[in-house]
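Worked Example 4.2. Consider the chain below.
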Amino acid sequence: MKLLLDFLPILLFFGAFKLYGIYVATAVLMLATAIQMGIAYFTEGKLQPMQKATLALILVFGTLTLVLQDDRFIKWKPTVLYAAMGIALAVAYWVMKKNFLKMLLGSQLVLPERIWSHLNMAWIVYCLFMSAINGWVAAFYSTDAWVNFKLWGYAFPIGFLVAQGLYIAPHLKSDEPSA
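Applying the procedure from the previous section yields the following structure tokens:
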């Protein structure tokens, strides 16, 4: 159910774009994301920092898109979000000497420190890659091509998450005592 809730705004955006164009799709995305975050807040009692950032950027860039009637704003929102995430992870790790991934997920996953460092590096590279590829598609392709990329581009995060799961699986510590 959570997976459907996570993908619902982009699916609604895609459908609205195909039927009504980018401006209606942007409004649909803004509304669907606000509802999605409301449901997440209601069920979990809070929003994660990433959820807050996503909601804020969609509302800001969506409003700019609608008010100025310029689709470049909504197209560049993912570039800004991914770049900010990659930079934040890098600055935290190399400047502040903190691993935000471990801080966020360390209570749920018990992994060796070396693996946390590798995951952090993988997320930095992934975020910067996603920022760059979205920026490239937004800058050099039509809005129709960008929307198609947004839908079919979900292969990147799914592939990344599967690869990450395969990487960490052998390193997870079991709660069961050894026999």
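The CA atoms of residues 15 and 108 lie 36 Å apart. The longest helix spans residues 113-140. Compare this with Example 4.1 before moving on.
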